[in-house]
Amino acid sequence: QVQLVESGGGSVQAGGSLRLSCIVSGYTYSNYCMGWFRQAPGKEREGVAAINSGGSKTYADSVKGRFTIYQDNAKNTLYLQMNNLKLEDAALYYCAASTWGFSSGSCYDPAYWGQGTQVTVSS
Fold it and tell me: Cβ neighbours of residue 55 under 8 Å, at least 6 residues apart?
């Protein structure tokens, strides 16, 4: 059974930083895409960042230069380091896993999702 469990969300002032974590269990595919998505109230879910099994990364234009996705395979954990947070970054952030590729910050057709972790950014 595949499980993705996010943590690390919280409240931060604009310009601050947060690091999100996603512990992955039961996911045994050798070729994969792991990514972070977010959804703000009244908006569609959007891909933020993704990394594939080869270590390649992709980011949404809105977060390039501010967010970094990385993974620790020994800990089966995916991370999203978020720096210089902006008001528009506030959203529910989800970790997701896919056996397909990625583009522009999104894994294609993730089959597995975490429950989400809330990020709030205040001025």
Answer: none
What digits encode the pLDDT tens for the residues 100-120? 889 888 998 999 999 999 999
Residues pairing with 51 in the sheet: 34, 57
pLDDT of residue 28: 82
Task: Quote the tokens at residue 70.
Answer: 């990385």
List the alpha helices (DSSP H) in the chain. none
Residue whose tokens read 């993730």: 110
**pLDDT (tens digit per residue) in 40-71:** 999 999 999 999 999 999 999 999 999 999 99
Distance CA 4, CA 106 (A): 17
* Gap between the Cα atoms of 57 and 53, Å rounded: 10
Cβ-Cβ contacts under 8 Å for 21 (sequence gap 6 or more): 6, 7, 8, 77, 78, 79
Number of helices and strands in the chain (H, E): 0, 13
